[in-house]
């Protein structure tokens, strides 16, 4: 499996703003602090956006759910 880089800025502005603001930082343990320096990529068929937490600078990764799986999360056992 290899990482396939994608163009985050090819998304419309509304989507960009939503992905950059709706975040979770594992270091700050807070939601929606924001993300900067976004990099979008696909790995193993899943699209991710990775950047830095606006508050502390830690790496923040968001998995992008497609319309087929949105709302259908499976618990890992």
List the helices and strands and how they pair.
Elements: E1 4-6, H1 13-21, E2 24-25, E3 30-31, E4 35-43, E5 46-53, E6 59-64
Antiparallel strand pairs: 1-4, 2-3, 4-5, 5-6
Q: Would you give an account of this structure?
A:
The chain is mostly beta strands and 77 residues long. A four-stranded antiparallel beta sheet has the order 1-4-5-6, covered by helices on one side. The longest helix has 9 residues. The protein starts with a strand and ends in a 13-residue tail after the last strand. The mean pLDDT is 88.
Number of DSSP strand runs? 6
Q: Can you give the mean pLDDT?
A: 88
Structural class of the secondary structure composition? mainly beta
Low-confidence stretches: none
Strand line-up across the major sheet: 1-4-5-6
Helix content: 10-25%
Strand percentage? 35-45%
Q: What kind of oligomer do you see? A: single chain
**Distinct helical segment count:** 1
Helices and strands, in order, run as EHEEEEE
